[in-house]
Amino acid sequence: DLRKQARQLENELDLKLVSFSKLCTSYSGTRDGRRDRYSSDTTPLLNGSSQDRMFETMAVEIEQLLGKLTGINDKMAEYTNSAGVPSLNAALMHTLQRHRDILQDYTHEFHKTKANFLAIRERENLLGSVRKDIESYKSGSGVNNRRTELFLKEHEHLRNSDRLIEETISIAMATKENMTSQRGMLKSIQSKMNTLANRFPAVNSLIQRINLRKRRDSLILGGVIGVCTILLLLYAFH
């Protein structure tokens, strides 16, 4: 009885899968006929929405049949594992494996056809959207084209301004880095001079004495010159 039910479900699935495959092929042909509607006289009997609804309905029906056939196979497996059929166990296992293979083939064929249908529908929807955008662009008026050109020019101006600003910022950053480097060098020189001054205090005091002697000599020389000048003036007036 279980084998009879399985064969009946397998026959139904076979017919459904054939119709399902034809639906996928006709869907692709319908889309191609729409693209070539100006060069072909064939008119599809069903539009895309009707085919989509039929696809959904047939997919649900096939999934239900696959579920029923899976349940029948499970029941047959339980029967072969029961204790009442030891002598026919090998033949029953062979029959069960055959039905399982048929179920696996039908399941694989269903998922493959369904995936192909969904891929074709997605591709056609994408191509339809692209064609619609192209047609809307071609049907645009001269004002829209002029506006698009103005937008493109403005965009190019903004890009040029952005590039100039980036160049200016890069120059400023390079200048800042150079000034920072020079400040570091000056600090290093100053620190070295302070280190030398701290290491050689005698040299520092000698330099200070030399500076004081230079100032004293300058004062003496200035005083002598002043006195000589005064004497020359007094001699000139007398």
UniProtKB/TrEMBL annotation:
Q: Which Pfam families match?
A: V-SNARE_C
Q: Which GO terms describe its biological process?
A: endoplasmic reticulum to Golgi vesicle-mediated transport; inter-Golgi cisterna vesicle-mediated transport; protein transport; vesicle fusion
**Bilayer disposition of the protein:** Single-pass type IV membrane protein
| Organism this protein belongs to | Falcunculus frontatus (Eastern shriketit)
Mind telling me what this protein is named? Golgi SNAP receptor complex member 1
Q: Supply the PANTHER family for this chain.
A: GOLGI SNAP RECEPTOR COMPLEX MEMBER 1 (PTHR21094:SF2), GOS-28 SNARE- RELATED (PTHR21094)
Keyword annotations: Golgi apparatus, Membrane, Protein transport, Transmembrane, Transmembrane helix, Transport
Q: What does UniProt give as GO cellular component? A: cis-Golgi network; Golgi medial cisterna; Golgi membrane; SNARE complex
Q: Which GO terms describe its molecular function?
A: SNAP receptor activity
The family line of this record is: Belongs to the GOSR1 family.
Question: Mind telling me which InterPro entries this protein's record contains?
Answer: Golgi_SNAP_su1
From the record, give the transmembrane residue ranges. 219-237
Instruction: Give the protein's function.
Output: Involved in transport from the ER to the Golgi apparatus as well as in intra-Golgi transport. It belongs to a super-family of proteins called t-SNAREs or soluble NSF (N-ethylmaleimide-sensitive factor) attachment protein receptor. May play a protective role against hydrogen peroxide induced cytotoxicity under glutathione depleted conditions in neuronal cells by regulating the intracellular ROS levels via inhibition of p38 MAPK (MAPK11, MAPK12, MAPK13 and MAPK14). Participates in docking and fusion stage of ER to cis-Golgi transport.
The compartments listed are: Golgi apparatus membrane
Q: Which domain of life is it from?
A: Eukaryota
- Coiled-coil residues are none
